[in-house]
Amino acid sequence: MSEPSYLAEIRNSYDTVADSYHDLLKDAHDSMPFDRAMLAAFAERAQGTVADIGCGPGRITTRLADLGLSVFGIDLSPEMIEVARREHPRLRFDVGSMTALDLADGSLGGVVAWYSIIHLPQDELPGVFAEFFRVLEPGGQLLLAFKSGDERRHLSHAYGHDVSLDVYWMPVDRVAKLAEQAGFTEVARLERAASTNEKGPQGYYLARKQ
């Protein structure tokens, strides 16, 4: 079966920006208290092994490890994984796609998808959320971060490079409904206003598998 074109665009774009992305965002959480709070709340609730899906260069993976979790990262972009392995050699990073996770049923205690669902066409999200549900054990925790809104924007330039990426802004209510339809039970949600360098509000969603 041939790969969907949107996955190739995501991979190629993030392969292109991998080093620049890391350099620009490696310390971003120092000025993001709500992001840190949601990650800390997740870390208090999650038990067992956690996967940071769409991990990029590993900035969230290493923060979760610093919060005491047993965590590894998965990303579609081989170049992002190369950067992650170089910058965080003590942690595990694998190339993979959230659309078809190479993980056993019920093998994880937690899944984090930190701004990694934002490039997926909306009709792909039910399948992706079903994958998250499948790989979590009962009681497993899910944490999502995404751009809050209701539109699709196309990026042709990002992080100092030419790219081709669709970015989907989604209402928190829509994300919550999709997660509920996949079987998740909501724990908390948050929407915050844009900070200085952001182009709109940001959403966060924490749920568990019963």
UniProtKB/TrEMBL annotation:
Keyword Transmembrane helix (UniProt): no
Task: Check the record and name the InterPro entries matching this protein.
Answer: Methyltransf_25 (IPR041698), Methyltransf_Superfamily (IPR050508), SAM-dependent_MTases_sf (IPR029063)
Q: What sequence ranges are listed for the domain Methyltransferase? A: 50-140
CDD domains in the cross-refs: AdoMet_MTases
Pfam families given in the database record: Methyltransf_25 (PF13649)
Show the GO MF annotations: methyltransferase activity
The protein's matches in SUPFAM superfamilies, at most eight in alphabetical order, are given as:
S-adenosyl-L-methionine-dependent methyltransferases
Checking Gene3D superfamilies in the record gives: Vaccinia Virus protein VP39 (3.40.50.150)
Listed A to Z, the keywords are: Methyltransferase, Transferase
Can you supply a Gene Ontology BP term from the record? methylation
Q: What is this protein called?
A: Methyltransferase
